[in-house]
């Protein structure tokens, strides 16, 4: 095994591959390993891939479920709807948390679970720095909807506003002017909830369309999101190849007297 690791390092990682993410690096290494199946090791009667196919029937079957390659720890919720993992704090949805939760630490992600759920209630990129806060602004939207005045001061929203599309600020200003009693902010928060279903690009495009068509509210944004997903109908080209008797219809000269038949005669 150590020999194989050394072979892979020397042949697949030198010179260093130019990749932009670990996902791209893993895909590259997988492709190189598959290409290596065609190599014949010195002293062996067949290629690596061929000998693997010969060996497979003698091996025990794989488990019916993938191995969960992670470290599992029990974590406690603090008053800011966060859990501490190692030295960092990760946010949890305020409307879906429990005092005791389970965190699964994968190499690149941290997933947080309730005891009564099989799916994570929160997922973050794993941070290897120290004393950091990893905050998902969507986790705090229920609180902002209850207290609309906090939208300008809540840390998760302030961080988000530094990078969200400029059209969001335009929409928020519009809704505040239209409903200055707090309803405008709540309507804006309801629109932000759409990020649980749609991408930021799709929502920004829908908001832009809603503002330009004077329907900048939740239902208007939903309408434009639906319009984006709707495919334009396509119709087959009309052909009269199978109906030769209709060839030339519409090309003959117009005879106005033919309309006399419709009312029984001419005057």
Helices and strands, with pairings:
Elements: H1 2-12, H2 22-36, H3 48-55, E1 71-76, E2 82-85, E3 88-91, E4 100-105, E5 109-113, E6 122-125, E7 133-134, H4 141-146, H5 155-161, H6 166-178, H7 183-192, H8 200-212, H9 218-229
Parallel strand pairs: 3-7
Antiparallel strand pairs: 1-4, 2-3, 4-5, 5-6
Helix pairs in contact: 6-7, 8-9
Tell me what the structure shows.
The strands form 2 sheets. A 4-stranded antiparallel beta sheet has the order 1-4-5-6, with no helix packed on it. It folds into 3 domains: 2-58, no CATH class; 71-134, no CATH class; 139-229, no CATH class. Helix 6 (166-178) packs antiparallel against helix 7 (183-192) and helix 8 packs across helix 9. The chain has 267 residues and is an alpha+beta fold. The N and C termini lie far apart (104 Å). The protein is built from 9 helices and 7 strands, in the order H-H-H-E-E-E-E-E-E-E-H-H-H-H-H-H.
Rg for CA atoms: 31 Å
Please give the alpha-carbon distance between the first and last residues.
104 Å
Task: Sketch the topology as an H/E string, one letter per element.
Answer: HHHEEEEEEEHHHHHH
Average residue-wise pLDDT: 91
Shape: flat
SS summary, helix count: 9
Integer tally of domains: 3
List descriptors.
267 residues; 3 domains; four-stranded antiparallel beta sheet; three-stranded mixed beta sheet; 36% helix; alpha+beta; 7 strands; flat
Give me a quick take on this structure.
This protein is α+β, with helices and mostly antiparallel strands and 267 residues long. It has three domains: 2-58, no CATH class; 71-134, no CATH class; 139-229, no CATH class. Helices cover 36% and strands 12% of the residues.
